[in-house]
Queue: 4 jobs
Job 1
Amino acid sequence: MDRTSPTTLATHVQGNETARPEIVSPSLDRMLELMVVFVLATSMAGLVLALGGLFQALQVVLLGAMSTLAYAFRFPASDRHRQAPNARHLLLLALVVLFFRIPSFNYVLGGQDEGVYFNIAANMVRTGGIVPTDAVLARISNTAQVQQYVSENYQQTIYLPGVYRSEDAVPQSEFQFYHMFPMWMAIAGGLFGIFNQLYALTFLSLLSVIFIYALALRISGKAEVALAAGLLLAVNPLHVFFSKFSVSEVPTLAFSAIGFAMLAGYWSAPTDERRPRWLVLSALAFACLFTTRISGFMYLPFLLAVSIASLLCDPDRPRARALHLWGVGVAGLYALSVAYGLRWSSHYSTDIYELSFRPLLGAHWKRVAALAVAAMIAAWGVMWTLSISRWRPTLARAVLVASRLVGPLTLLCIAAALYKGYQLGFTDLYLGDPWMATRWHLAGAGWRSFGATSLIVAAMYLGPPLFVAYLWLVQRRSGAPMLQMLSVFLLGFAANFALLQWFVAYQPYFARYLLSEFVPYIVLFVCCAWGATRSAVGKSTILAVILLSGVYAVAVSAAQYGKRENAGAQEFLSRATSHLGAGDVLMMDATAPPYGVSAVKTGIVYAFGKAAMNVNATSLMDDTYIARIAAAFDDVYLLTAKSSTPAGFDFVETERLQVAGFDHSLHPPVRASNQLDLPLYLYRLHASYGNGSVIDFGSGGAGVGWLGDGWSTPEPWGVWSIGHSAHIRIASRDLIGAEDLKLRLTAIGFVGPSHPRQVVRMAVNAKPGTTIEFRYPDATSQTIEIAIGSGGVGATGAVDVAFDMPDAVSPRALGRGGDDRTLAIGLKSAVLVAGE
């Protein structure tokens, strides 16, 4: 690669425009532009509808298609000489991508980010919105048992890992993470089924490869360079793994590649063929990125640098002004994304900003961050002012001089990473650290500790030769401005991974942070630098490195073949929930030997849409609590690791929870093993109320679930009948099942001086039974005993007790106030008694 000589800036910039790519049919380039429009329109429509609780997958896709059609009519194709991809290249890339990425991983268990994303999407498909559901809390709200339920199922500020809660008496919940990526999964889930929703990630993975290819074509103007970049990314083991693993790095890469490709397309187009709409599409792509991952703030310094460098260095002043406006627009869209996060993902946003900026900026990080933002805006304004003054040439030369520091600073980052690896492995600096030493066992691990440093892990996934080539090539300044800006972009992330996110606790999970920017853009940089190199020896050397790295990547990616992360989890949950109907609830024994209760519960609640709740040993023995839960649901099941049948339950079946996944180690994902393997036992509640349990008919009492027609709204003391007839219905599961079963009701009659007598006739399952009489003043309340017996269950599977009350009358008719309800009998409580 030739070094930049101290010639005029105009020659420096214009030299990039003289390299023209081979001309291919422009229709394919137009198709990619329309694909960008479809993806962006679908993204924004889907996110807005999801935030409004109106998400429907088909309607979102139709809105995206209609927007694309409108764009095609409003902006006809005009790219007569624009760079265009090669159809055979795109087909090859698509086939390679699909070969390594199908099937995807259905990560239905919760507990970690990938499971949370999957279940957010499933909830979106089921509810049309982003608000987490809690069917149990909804059914028992306004009852005395709410606080007991909340204390067992809501821990501090979370309902489940990844589902935050408010501090209200009745908690309000929100999902962790931004919603753009799960919205795309919900599109696939809504169209093809929830357990096919990960193929949205396959689509976004393909987009990321195609637009890295397109970006390489824009930067280099050479089809072979673009193909090399696309293929290297398509077979990269890090990209392959996380294209099947539901986290947001691949979608982030897809949106950034689209944004940069549209920006580069505008930059590289001849003056008469530039279209401002490409900059608009670029800005909207970054807006989608900002609502996919909160770490979009990492892009702001670079985007500011692009805008300032264009203002100062580009002799094409209309293009410079356009890029300046693009930078302003992108910054504004980022500000909107911050507001979005604080409004719809407030707990997560607050936590991430705290964790990101407090260690760097100190206790007053909010004030410092605000000042830094103000300083950036002021610097931006100053540079804009200077760009239209006589100082611009001087500042442009200063920018070019500063660009020479990118290479040395990159090497300095490598040195810093190696030094931190040395501190971790060979000093006692981290021996007392609860994470490095106790949890991850990395402190004092010698040379093994170096393998946990982020930049070494990046080299592992790129292949050491490719990483060394990057370090060599970044020292050799290119004459292509876009390639120089790419080196600046990579420098920012090299510094981040050398000094801040500098270690990878285990792979493959934590290596994902290297995927959204650092690894793929190093691939892009090396390939484009290869295209810009004029030396035959240098060109051949880099080509050899690219080929060697490609073989290495294929070998590591192929090691993933036939293995599935979270394998077996979906099948287990499907079997375990097969007995549950829409009105049933699954209790999960949180006191049994551990089996990842929260992880299993997350999948049951959101992926499978079933009501589930934690319960401890004390609550299982609390007849009143269990009775209230049973009254709210049709059937109650219990899932536990205990093999002994709990009192009041019947054994249903044993299901083995066997879940396989890739080993957590300091190596790429090549080995898989069972992560969970234990039997779980499913039981069904057959008697919600033990012998002698008191069932309250007051508001919030368990007896409210027995009330059929003919009753008023329950009050704290109990409930009044209204009208001349009423029914209570006791489900079979609530009966003890003894040979001699009696129901004892504590009741009061509506009697008084002006109406001293109430006659109440009762029937059990349409068979005449007891007749009682309330009299004033000596028999205003009574205990009513109704014989049910072992054969008392009727055809409906319940005991129906009917009350006929011919003397019912309203207080208003008796001159006792304005209450016009027709009252006869008031139920206070009941007791089921067996064997007396």
Note: The longest helix spans residues 317-344.
Job 2
Amino acid sequence: TAVPDAWKVSAEDLQSGRRVEVSRDAWISAFPSEQAGNNGAASRLKLKGIQEFFLIDFDPAPLAEMVCERAELHVKIAGDESLGRVTVSSIMAPWHEGSGTNYAVTEEGSSFLWQAGTDVPWASDSPDITGVVLGNGGSQWGFADATSPDRDGWQTIAIDPAVVQARLEGFSHGFFVIDDVGSEYTRQGNHIEYRLFPNRFLYSRESSRSRAPYFKLWLRPRKPGDPAYQPPPVHKLEPVNPAVLPDLPTSVAGRTTRLRPAADTPAVGTVPIRHPDGRRLSDNRLYAARGEAIGFLVPWSAGIIRVVSPDDVEVHVYRTPLIDGKIDPLVPVTSKQPLPPDASTLEGDAYIELYVHPHAAGGPRRLELTDGQQRVTIDLQVWNFALPDRLSFIPQMNCYGLPDNEIDFYRLAHDHRTTLNRLRYSWTGKVAADAVPTLDAARGWDWSAWDQKFGPLLDGSAFADLRRGGVPLEAMYLPINENWPMDHEAAFRGGYWVESAYPDQYWETFRDAVARFTTHFAERGYHHTMFEFYLNNKVYFKANRDNRWDACSAPWIFDEPTHTQDFWALRRFGREFWLGVHAAGQQQALPWMTYRLDISRPQWQRELLDDVSNVEVVSGELRRYRQRVIERSRRLNHLVYMYGSSGPVTDRVVMPAAWCVETWALGGDGVVPWQTIGTKQSWTKPDDLSLFYPTAGKPVPSIRLKSFRQGQQLVEYLTIYSQLSGNTRAEVGEAVLTDPGLKGVMRKRSEEDAGTTNFGEATAGALARLRLSLGHWLDQQSPPDRVQWHQPFPPAKPAVPVESRRVVQ
């Protein structure tokens, strides 16, 4: 058969490659004020970590029916910075070079946000270009270390031939190029200079042919029997229709409309009652499931509060010292413990908490509340269903330090249907002595002191007398980190890329520690706690603390990773972690070992973490990239939390409860306020981070901690409803999100700020309506009690991920 002209390739081309000219290029930016800007007519291109990138292309028509065996991109430096490791990805949507310069918004040009102009999205399920590059939308990518600049400033970037083949065969629409190194540092002894996002300029095709970038391709004619190019699969969430949630009974609907905030709502009897979210109780009726705690506020007018209740309803009364005129800490009236001096004047109201015993019978109850001079009767309807003792959704109270009576903090969290999780190592990777077993060179690892301290949390005996009984701690950080039990400084060889950063001995020590912890937990029967391997430290802590190299042990940004170098390092640590877990053996009942990552930029993680992490704690970007994050979690069967701040000390406490409900509706498994333990100063100045107030005795809760419990309880309602109603969780979640009052907005003061979720005026009423409608429906169903309705733990032992070969040679 005659060879078509398009297949003909000269021997020189096969030997040295064919130069292929660039047909179009454009520089785009993810910086907030530049995201809609186009630089298609600029004489330069720019790479700047995850902030600025360029699109580039050649005309594939003359190269039809060819097979790419090797490929390069040649670029000439147009500034002071050279390239390190660079990714070249296919682009799975058309794009337009545009005529913009200086980030101009054009009618036709592509930008980070828009495929064209300001109204054509890159993909229906993505808010920006990241949905069609870097492994998303069927795209492929590979990264390579650029060659050192020659004396004329030219550098060469190897391209994965599959990325070029996608373009030759019409699956791709060009190439997306991103700088993988991002921020850099130089070190001299203990001094570090950290350079945040250096600007790496290159000449574009608009400069001149002698400086313009070009491709070099090694091609051959397609032969009979050559396999056809197969693009990677496209993963998307299947769209679901919102479930139809139950209506409020007619007998309740009229009263519920009066639950909105209104200062002039008439009080019941002579004692005005209001909810912590600011709503006045317009009648004398309350509702609660069995095993549920509810609370309300009344004025502290006469100095004495007395509540007469049935035996199956516990009553707890708290005083509310004001912090800058606002209610937050709740001091038990029966408490005789000394408080900070500034809290000795207990002004404010009384917080009344009612707890219905789990085995109480459903039906009405009557309570009498007296404040010494006035009396009011409260009708409590106990719904005929029970909340489970084991949580289906976990508000995980993160902290970094606790007073000496730390067991009291764990118990307080447990009683509020949350779990307290303390990270027990520092920025330098130094682990608290009591957080690890005693390491003895002769006798091995001695666990006796460790088990004595932590065993009661893990077997549940520390909580046996509390409302949920002896349910063990839901989550616990492992002390293992980049500097324990390894000596990081002795091992670290330098460089931005983990594959050459450590000797084998470093990884052997790491895997051995993981295996020892796994084995010990299995032998002790600690089977109801997620043990989280988590790397918290960040290389830029070194710069933030007097430019001292020894100020932090992390050579990458482990927590909230930013650059590809960070995600790549996290991937390697994850692979070594699972090798250690598997080395513990094949026991029938291994503990719940997890690799937890905190991700503030899910749009940049590609698929690097897919087979290593099984708990991802995502920032408020979960809302914007929900389709991608939740699809991944469902496909890979791992957990997703949303993290942020606890919400401000405010007159209307609604954020924690709404945050829990919204996160569940989005598809999440829990929330993580990043810091939760107050200080002495929290008693005098509003402290958004203080959910637990320390005292000289036991800690006391904040009213916001009560709100987290309210949210967790309402999520249990939703979980039970989704299982009994025939609707999927996704369908119920979509129904919840149709209420504007249950959609939050993330506010951040800076890039490093964890962010706070804000909800609007309609949220309190939305939560009340949702709770009452679900509660009445579940009351009618009267489901049998369960210890747990949903297990919010990932698989205990995923397969060891294969070693990635992403670097293009």
Note: The radius of gyration is 30 Å.
Job 3
Amino acid sequence: MPPMSTQTPLMRQYLETKEKYRDAILFFRLGDFYEMFFDDAERVSKMLNLTLTSRNKSSAESVPLCGVPHHSAQTYINRLISMGHKVALCEQMEDPKKAKGIVKREVVQVITPGVMLDPEGLDGKNPNYLASVCHRQGRWGLALADVSTGLFQMTELADESKLSDELNRLEPREILLPVEEKNRPWAERLRKNFPAVLFNAMPGWHFDPDFGRDLYQSYYKASLAGLGIDSLNGAYPAGGALLSYLSEMKLLKEGLLSRPRIYFSADSMAIDDNAKRNLELVTTLAEGKRHGSLFWLIDRAKTVMGSRQLKNWLLSPLIESKKIEERLSVVSELKENSGLLSELENEFSKIADLERLENRIVAGQANARDLIALCASLERVDAIKNTLSGCGSPLLCESRDKLDSLNELTDEIGRTLCDDPPPALKEGGIIREGVNAELDELRSIEKNGKYFISTMEAREREATGISSLKIRYNQVFGYAIEITHTHKDKIPQHYIRKQTLTQAERYITPELKEYEEKVLRASERICELEYEIFQQLREKAAGFSVRIKKTAETISTLDALMSLARVALEYRYVRPEIVDEPALEIKKGRHPLVEALYREEPFVPNDLLLNTSDQRLLIITGPNMAGKSTVMRQTALIVIMAQMGGFVPAESAMIGIVDQIFTRVGASDRLQKGHSTFMVEMIETANILAHATEKSLVVLDEIGRGTSTFDGLSIAWAVAETLHDKIACRTLFATHYHELTDLAEEKEGIRNFHMAVKEWNGEILFLRELKEGGTNRSYGVFVAAMAGLPPETISRAREILKLLEEKDLQFKSAAQKESPQMTLFEPRPHPVVEELKKVDINALTPLEALNVLARLKTSY
């Protein structure tokens, strides 16, 4: 880049601005375009496939540049943000026509993935979190804001793994860290765990508790104690840094963020990233798509606000039975009254995203169409309240009473704005007639302009005798009388030549010039005045922020409950019984996704019973593809659906509150982190054993399969004992180690179950039934044949299997003699032990005993 001293005044202005926003792509406003220069231009042209050109092409100091039209810039900005970049918008702060010298410009907004407000750049069904993390006094402070909706919440976490689990649950787009901590091991691990997230390192003073205290006081006009966050010594500094960051982004306006909400992980069921992924709660395991996940199945919300709320409930199920029952009562009432449900769905389908609409209004980024959408949505509130007037569920009644139609605001929006305003705010056409007297007068002048022009044109034709005379308008030259060269000898003396064309000349007159100035001033003033009126209306709407957000939150809650009711009605789900003791009894339970997606054959339901006394750990054996994983996953999904307040796929279900769900399912590696399949399996198992409690539900599928048989069996045996003896949690333990079935004979709370199969003419039929008792066959060769392995391979496998199953194989006997290793569960007889068994100790003198010992020592 050439030295600034050699640059033009415009380039110096650009470079000075760019220096302040070095980590952002600078969109520099030049007339009707946003231009990018130097490195920004080269990068953006490649990323967005834009034409790269240059200023001063013939000069040795040519400047690379590319640009986008200002009216379509948001599309390009959204694409850059989706790639994880920052964009700084540098606007012209004065009219170029009135500027003395270089036009004043300044950055009015910095856009990052965590502070997006444009609806085209956001996923309506997902929150868009900006997170802030700091480590203080051995605890992790976490603050989160969804700038698009105004949600602001914070928590503290005891260890790094809990922090990682929470971030995995919330999926923030951007994370703030203290710059002094960015190279610490924990920060590096965080960046590795979340490679798609934009990390911003901020100077440590942003996280200073005293700085944060002052910022909270300034923004909320309340102390830390008044906000109820004074005890969170790790969280409120993280929140202070988040507020400071939004201030630097020029977004922290009054009403943008709600008062901070405190939450703790212990307030809801903990679902770590493994469980979230393995149970396919929000995306499928194979393809990572929403379609086929539990969220996809249960999301019948009519608003995107309801979808976001439903997803939040899915990932944070309740652990307080009273709150669960409140939701279940609503779902029950709506399911039983399908007419009421349909009527509500019809009204809710007409409601826009009030949460995000309101925050665009507060941020000063809403246009007239946004206010019309706000008005149309709020106008449905009275109809919804009337529909709910006869409801009996306490939560429904409470929600009905919280709804606020804000008639004083909607009336003013309706009186002020046109029904179908254009998206642009500074080009007129958004304010109704009768709103402002000056505006109506200016419009009259503009409207009568066409009549004046046509009248003047007819008059001049008659006066000059030129029948082809026309009065035309050009954006550059304004109004002019156009006369072809054929009639140039008829041009009056008072006509003033303005422009020469190939076939004609253009002229003006003092009268025409005076009218032109009057009309153009009117048009310009109309646009200015309409924008001023709109800004006043938008500011007034921003003043209703708290009431609008309260109504929006209520609508999202109702919509989520309606969604659960609609799914329960469609799939014949039943209301679960919620109990506080750690029991779990499901009659004819079904896997909701398998049932919904695979309808070629009827789903086979299964019963399941777990408690913490005589049946707290089930050892489940049986062949692959027989349904072990389906039964275990459906059990976990039924628990989650019940505790989020929904009905469940079963004939009946008694659900004892579960505080955490853990899963260890399938084989995967993390080679980029240096972890093999077996290492991943052991890390996940270690996490379960470290954090599970008596109230947890643990789902284990194939522990110890990534190493040798003896090692794997030993680990699986020990893990099962730990879960049963020390943690005493409800556990489903699927395995191909049939030796584990012996545990049921030793442990009071362990029971054996298997997935039933039927052999028929050399083939097997999967019955999909969970039955009591163990099995000693895995039918792996049968499954291999079904998968299409070559017949000769299958035949050889069966031969080898037959040999291995015979107890008196010569090579096995030889191996037992040659190998010094003792088997794990059937120890080989030792010669010394056998000799000692032959000794009659009752008839042995002390001297004879010493002789026996000496002989054994010499012989062995």
Note: The two ends are 86 Å apart (CA to CA).
Job 4
Amino acid sequence: MIRTSSGIAVLALSWLFALPLFYPVNNLAWIATTALGVFLLSGSSGFGASRNSDRSEPARRKMARRETALTVLLLLVAAWLAPRPYGLAPLLIALGLVAIELPIPRRWPTMLGQGAVVAGTVLIAQAMALAAYTWQTARCHDLPWPLTWLLTAVARLLQVDATTDGSTVVLHTMRKTHHLAATWELFFDPATLAFAVGMLVWCAMVARRQLGPGRRWSAWIANIRTLGLILLVWLPVRAGLLMAIYVHRVLRTPPEVPLHAMNQFFSPWVLGLLLAVPVVLAWRFVRTANGQRAASPEPMPSDWSWTSRPWHLPAAVSLLVLAAALLAVALHYEPVGRRQAGRVVVVERHSAWEPTTRPYDTQWFGHDSGYNYAAVFDYLSQYYEMERLLEGDAIDDDTLDLCDVLVIKTPTARYRKNEVEAVLRFVERGGGVLLIGDHTNFENCGTYMNDITRHLGFTFRHDLLFGFEQWPYDQRYVPPAVAHPAVQHLPPTDLAVSCSIDPGNSRGRPVVQATGLWSMPSDYHMDNYHPVPQHLPEMRAGAFVQAWAVRYGEGRVLAFTDSTIFSNFCTFQPGKAELLLGMVEWLNHRGGINLRWGLGVLGLMLLVAGFWLAPRRGRLGLLWLAALLCGWAVGSVATASVHRWAMPGPKVVRPLGRVVIDREVSRVPLSKGAFPVDADGQGYGLLETSIPRLGNYTVRCTGDDVFSGDMLVVICPTGSVDEQYRQRLQRYVADGGMLLVIDSPENKSSTANSLLWPFGLSMPFDQPWQGTLTLTDDWPKLRITQAWEVVGGTPVARLGPRPVAAMTQYHKGTAMAVGFGSVLNDARLGGSWTVEPSGEVQQRYQVLFALLRELITGERPRAPQ
């Protein structure tokens, strides 16, 4: 029993490595802990008889092999369709069944197979429990007030000076007062939950195999009571122990050293070590067979056989697969509805932040040019009829009747009551509203947004979310396998710093829900209310909602909490513009038949029918589980397919120039979020963000998508250029594409010539040159310290008589080579988009713009005025 409870605890710990509940995924630790859990559960009595138990009856053995084969097939389908890491559980069960049936004359394959079957079954139950846990804590981390008082009482029993203040336990020490958030993660962490659920499942398996039908339920309920009592005693003690250790660490930290004592609450190793106590208690007090001897295997009912009723088993399996599929659709399905005309209005009234009114061009730089939505406004104009509602315009029924989607962004002034009512009536009539908020209630944005959202049942919190990555501003968001239609076309993207949403009692759905985050309250001593990222007692950690969608009347509302990522300086980084496009497109739909309740009821009816029709044999339990898993996986994949069919990406009607930044053969650092990633002077993020100033937009691409734009930019290539890539590149330019290859003597492993030779261009990598750069006779002189000469084509930039940039016509397209790329890296373009360029920095920008204009439009460079 101690080995079994330890194995279940190890499996519970494995989820802390498999999922980014707190810290990022650790694949090595996940696989190691799962393998250890399987080993500890090997030979577990939860599985039952070995493969040799039916050898006396050949007919029964033949039927058992058919059932096993069907079970394995269904499990493999579920494992193939399920997303990582959830597919591991059905795969373990399938492999375990195969190992049990293998004709190996040794006992250890059977024991390992039994361990894999038990471990897979336990992992399935734990996955369901953790999904529910994440769903709940993403909405509210705080404990109800009786439990907060309980934690305070436990702290006092441990001689800690403590009191209760709302949703926090206030701990007093000589150094400072600590407002420790009373959260579910503190009281009932996910590892303990997974262990408890795993123990209950194992006890049920043992009771089913070892006891007769009359004793199973009573034995399992007795175990539920025992485990409940263990948790009732252990959970307060566990929380008190953590609080006492925290206070001890604080007191032991020298006054001159910053406090760093919160990591114990989220460390997988600490949470796993704390499982030792419930493991020992379960070993001591949980009775697997309720003290009874194991019952003999149940005989097969005399009135049932494979030959007399051959349709019962396949019919039951089919019903269970269909029932699980319908239940999955009922849970995940989001009606899309019919598409509207696409009239989108951006509200500039009451919003002085992130304006769209001033173009993002080659003359405007600095802080305000970056925190601006002009580029993304132009991007959306490819798909929709874009308009602005300016400060002097009214927000009333007549105005709003002229649009389908209303975008309210970062308000800096309060909406009047009649304006709020007009917005709500607009939604009731079938309109869509996108609310874009920001972190920490900056400029009172959250307060003004909540004047609207409170009527819909949810609010923007006044907090800021960080990630548990090494850099707290990093947050990688990957849409789930069955995503909300608004984010179904979204590639993995990096979010910046958002607030979270309190869904309250609203009947909505999360559009963006992520784990591995921690929040801090606003710091009103800072100009932007932005707290310094540090782990403090008042932080909440785990899952949070960052985008929330609700239906109201005939219309729909979507709230998003990270306004920064749509700013000019980062909106064309991977996924960001696509995220805004997906949200607007979903809001540009109306109606849709909500079949969720009907499908759910039908699924439950089929589930009951399937179990009623199922043969009453204990050995078939895994078959029914496999049918349910397969059906759930199929239903989930079908729902995602229906979403994509119902809401494909919008069609471009007024195309802008699409400029592809190659990531197939070029690996130079580009910007991430608000910050250029300048690795030893090799970053080119500012060059990338400068291209949209000419009326284009940029995308980073690999594979075949590299050739999907109007222009391809390859910066300091180092990747191998194979023949297929070269041929595709030649066809791309020959068909009218534009190619810009930028290289530099600082690129020691350049493969630029492999790209340029087919077009009659090359860079002799024999000697770097220096001198004064000129584009025309009257161009301001710019000193260049190193550049490659460019041979072939028509020179467009020179160092004295030597061409360092040239272009050539190739069939319908154009290719340009630039040999002084280091002049255009982040360090030499000012280091940040917030810098107002002057002197040589300004000249470098003008050189870049002149080269881009000549390539795109054929316009010869003119000296800047």
Note: The first strand starts at residue 162 and ends at 165.
